[in-house]
Write a structure and sequence with these properties.
2 domains; single chain; about 220 residues; alpha+beta; 5-stranded mixed barrel; Archaeosine Trna-guanine Transglycosylase, Chain: A, domain 4
């Protein structure tokens, strides 16, 4: 989804943003993430974000769900803009977050807000502001072959016309976000240095998953 504001460089974004720790959640540039917001602290976060830059940071906690109300965070996350918001009628927000660029946490602030805020650094990921950067280096055919093998093995149908017509960046990042892998694999996909590295990693992790399925005939289909 296109945003109403063009983010062309780190200076177009606030240096301090609220962060939303969520295990297994992966946001990448120019891909949409739907979120169901119901905790009071995150409802407050969305309210405040909508009054300002509408930017929040998605980041994974180190600790498993429920282990702590203030878990340690991975150093790298991805900022996104709230591009859609709907009220559910029962106190929840249904939002769409569109990825802008990855960031590294410089430090976490001590604040009075119920949600966490961090000072962030976008400079290691300057290429994220350039749409389609690195697309010509991706082995798109290999990615599509691996995707087909995975879908066939799990008896999942797909819109191949839509897949073949998708820009390479959208395909790589979208598949990475939708992949059924664990938090560590998702973090590795996030931290991949460029689009080719992310595509290669996605192929490798998917092939490992397929090999494991082949070794276990009782593995349930997903």
């Amino acid at each position: 989804m296109a945003t109403n504001i063009a983010y062309r460089a780190a200076g177009d974004l606030p240096p301090i943003i609220p962060v939303f720790p969520l295990a297994g959640a992966l946001l990448l540039p120019r891909v949409e993430m739907p979120l169901n917001i119901f905790e009071p602290r995150y409802l407050a976060m969305i309210d405040d974000a909508m009054k300002g830059a509408r930017v929040i940071g998605m980041i994974q906690p180190y600790e498993s769900r429920g282990a702590s109300s203030h878990p340690a965070l991975y150093a790298i996350g991805c900022a996104g803009r709230v591009t859609q918001l709907a009220e559910s009628g029962d106190g929840r927000y249904l939002i769409t977050l569109t990825g802008i660029a990855r960031f590294r946490i410089a430090d976490e602030l001590t604040t009075l807000t119920p949600y966490r805020q961090c000072r962030i650094d976008f400079s290691p990921f300057a290429a994220d502001f350039d749409p389609h950067h690195g697309e010509d280096t991706v082995d798109r055919d290999a990615l599509l072959r691996t995707l087909k093998n995975y879908l066939d093995a799990n008896r999942i149908e797909a819109d191949w016309n839509g897949i073949r017509g998708a820009p390479t960046e959208a395909l790589v990042n979208g598949l990475s976000m939708m992949s059924p892998f664990g938090a560590r694999e998702k973090q590795a996909l996030l931290e991949a240095p460029d689009l080719k590295a992310r595509a290669d990693l996605l192929i490798a992790v998917t092939e490992i998953s397929l090999a494991r399925q082949g070794d276990d005939n009782d593995l349930p289909m997903q």
